[in-house]
Design brief:
alpha/beta; Rossmann fold
């Protein structure tokens, strides 16, 4: 039996006994003593009840520092570990998002024309989908044509519209003739959307109604729509079928005079209103707000077709 004596003046001597087991010639012994105070001189008298054992005195002074609770050493590594894992997750998420956006940008720009012209990229319209005829002019250049394609793709892919566009029906147009094909669709569709710009307004307004240039199909279509619109006004029919849109600032300065009475929307700021118009939905009523995802100017690019439209707008007006 080992006996540890510890002295702390002026306290009395206190003793501690510990069993001493000897095995394979090894007589070393470990023991833990507690309740020591910093800054105090301690004398340890170590002795054994074994035969011919010698006693030994050991002096030790504990430094005057406050011991840190064990819980600190346990909690601190856990906090470091949790913080490290959270930071690693955030970094990985940000990197992944950047790669996804960058990859989507490259992929979207490279496959832009191919995807929009491919019929497989178009979803089958629902039976209740409104039939929309898009009217535009190609004289603005290829960037504007890509914008029209992207807009048609977005209406059909995300907004549940059945879109008729000449670029998707070239074979039918070649068989029927462009003017005949255009006239039949303007009459049969639910809505006619005319994409206008300041250049096109000047082009249409300089042509008299008698001298319609049918070689410029935009001028011909606008003149035809203007004639139908005037007749509907005379006979007090609903003119909500005819819609004018523009992706530029002041839509009134870009609308031909024959279409001034048509409903006008500036895109993409007014697109929720256009969506409501096409589907005959009241998005906002007293005490009721109907939410449709990814049709606002702040989030329409979150879907694939909206992202292609965003790229087309950027290329057409901001490049």
């Amino acid at each position: 039996m080992l006996m540890f004596g510890r002295t702390r003046l002026p306290d009395l001597i206190k003793s501690h006994r510990s069993p001493h087991k000897k095995s394979q010639g090894n007589s070393r012994l470990k023991d833990v003593l507690e309740n020591f105070k910093p800054g105090v001189n301690y004398t340890f008298m170590v002795s054994s009840d074994l035969t011919d054992s010698a006693s030994k005195e050991v002096y030790y002074v504990f430094p005057e520092t406050e011991s840190v609770p064990k819980v600190v050493f346990i909690v601190a590594p856990l906090l470091v570990m949790v913080t490290g894992v959270a930071l690693g997750f955030i970094i990985a998420f940000v990197c992944s998002a950047k790669k996804k956006v960058a990859g989507g940008l490259n992929e979207g720009e490279e496959s832009f024309g191919r995807c929009l012209r491919d019929p497989q990229c178009q979803t089958k319209p629902l039976r209740v989908a409104p039939h929309v005829f898009l009217c535009y002019s190609s004289c603005e250049g290829p960037a504007h044509t890509h914008l029209v394609l992207a807009f048609a793709h977005y209406l059909q892919q995300h907004c549940s519209c059945q879109v008729t566009l000449d670029l998707w029906e070239e074979l039918v147009i070649a068989r029927e003739g462009h003017v005949s094909w255009m006239s039949s669709h303007i009459e049969s569709c639910d809505f006619v959307i005319i994409i206008c710009s300041k250049t096109l307004k000047d082009l249409v307004d300089t042509k008299s109604s008698v001298e319609v240039d049918f070689r410029n199909l935009f001028v011909a279509s606008v003149s035809l729509v203007g004639e139908i619109l005037g007749q509907d006004l005379i006979f007090k029919r609903d003119i909500s079928k005819f819609i004018v849109v523009s992706f530029q600032e002041d839509i009134h300065l870009q609308t031909p005079s024959v279409l001034q009475l048509a409903t006008k929307y500036r895109l993409m700021e007014d697109f929720p209103k256009l969506f409501s118009h096409l589907h005959s939905l009241e998005l906002l009523q007293p005490g009721l707000l109907l939410h449709v995802s990814n049709i606002n100017q702040d989030d329409y690019f979150m879907v694939n077709s909206g992202y292609l439209l965003y790229c087309a707008i950027k290329k057409s007006y901001f490049s």
